């Protein structure tokens, strides 16, 4: 979307969260939502929500709230919900299998189209309706795939990353503990559950949420 560059990154990160909730409201036939309702549901303080929504051109009215349909339309366009984004997953082990079985389509048009593994026993099978190819076929199969989910062992992460980038992948969701090195222009989002859990416990201890006004914007 042309206006997307105006949205601050912290706001953009919350978009999928808002989208999911607003979409549910829409399915339930709700026409309006207040920032308080949203705040309770998505656990973002209402002042932040009001500021975020002002970037979307959605100006809530006192006692009226926000128009659900308008927001939904905006989020759909901004998140490219109308356009399917093909994704590949590398490493169909414990974590990879769980992701393939999880149907991302429920919430948006992000779809894992194909998966790769080095284990010959898995190649040629399907998990969650997604075909599994041998990792040797990566370069042959990865057409038009822009993003990849990395769930291989730590030791394989960098080599696989380089092959993905050579095949045109420009976004990697990295679940391995490896700090992978990528050239400029390739975006890596690193998700480490151990770090997330540690951080949650730290925040629970040091920033107890007994008053919603204390909640700060990240
Ligand atoms: N982010 C997290 O919170 C979190 C949690 C658990 C595991 N992990 C990490 O995610 C990764 C996967 O974990 P897991 O428990 O699913 O491991 P796993 O051993 O169950 O799965 C790894 C899969 O990768 C495949 N593989 C190995 N080498 C490959 C290669 N060169 N190309 C393609 N596939 C290859 C294996 O055959 C296997 O199916 C690990 O790096 C692990 O540390 C992250």
What's a quick, concise take on this entry?
The protein is an alpha/beta fold. The chain has 8 helices and 9 strands. Helix 5 links the parallel strand 3 and strand 4.
Report the count of strand segments.
9
Summed over residues and divided by their number, the pLDDT gives a mean of 86
The largest beta-sheet arranges its strands as 5-6-4-3-7-8-9
Bound molecules: nicotinamide-adenine-dinucleotide
Proportion of beta-strand residues: 15-25%
Biggest beta sheet summary: 7 strands, mixed
CATH homologous superfamily (4th level) name of the largest domain = NAD(P)-binding Rossmann-like Domain
- Helix vs. strand class: alpha/beta
What is the total number of structural domains? Answer: 2
Order of helices and strands: HEHHEHEHEEEHEHEEH
Distance between the termini: 24 Å
Weakly predicted, low-confidence segments: 212-218
Shape: globular
Family: Belongs to the transcriptional regulatory Rex family.
Function: Modulates transcription in response to changes in cellular NADH/NAD(+) redox state.
Subcellular location: Cytoplasm
Keywords: Cytoplasm, DNA-binding, NAD, Repressor, Transcription, Transcription regulation
Structure description:
Homodimer. Its main location: cytoplasm. Belongs to the transcriptional regulatory Rex family. This protein is α/β, with parallel strands linked by helices and about 220 residues long. The chain folds into two domains: about 1-75, Arc Repressor Mutant, subunit A, CATH 1.10.10.10; about 85-195, Rossmann fold, CATH 3.40.50. It has helices at about 10-25, 35-40, 45-55, 70-80, 95-100, 140, 155-165, 195-205, and strands at about 30-35, 65, 85-90, 110-115, 125, 130-135, 145-150, 170-175, 185-190. It has a seven-stranded mixed beta sheet. A two-stranded antiparallel ribbon has the order 1-2. α1 packs across α4 (about 70-80) and α2 (about 35-40) crosses α3. The longest helix is centred in the N-terminal third of the chain and has 19 residues, at about 10-25. Bound molecules: nicotinamide-adenine-dinucleotide. Nicotinamide-adenine-dinucleotide binds near residues 92, 152, 153, 176 and 191.
């Amino acid at each position: 979307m042309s206006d997307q560059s105006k949205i601050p990154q912290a706001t953009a990160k919350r978009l999928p969260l808002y989208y999911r909730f607003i979409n549910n409201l829409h399915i339930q036939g709700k026409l309006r939502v207040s920032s308080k309702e949203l705040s309770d549901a998505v656990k973002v303080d209402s002042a932040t929500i009001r500021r975020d929504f002002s970037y979307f051109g959605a100006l809530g009215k006192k006692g009226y709230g926000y128009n659900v349909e308008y927001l939904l339309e905006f989020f759909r366009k901004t998140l490219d919900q109308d356009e399917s984004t093909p994704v590949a997953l590398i490493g169909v082990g414990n974590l990879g299998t769980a992701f393939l079985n999880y149907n991302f389509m429920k919430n948006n048009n992000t779809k894992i189209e194909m998966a790769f593994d080095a284990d010959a026993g898995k190649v040629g099978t399907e998990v969650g309706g997604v075909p599994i190819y041998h990792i040797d076929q990566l370069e042959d199969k990865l057409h038009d795939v822009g993003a990849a989910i990395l769930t291989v062992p730590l030791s394989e992460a960098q080599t696989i990353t380089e092959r993905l980038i050579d095949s045109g992948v420009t976004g990697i969701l990295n679940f391995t503990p490896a700090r992978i090195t990528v050239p400029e222009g390739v975006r890596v989002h690193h998700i480490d559950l151990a770090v997330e859990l540690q951080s949650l416990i730290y925040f629970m201890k040091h920033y107890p949420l007994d008053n919603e006004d204390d909640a700060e914007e990240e």
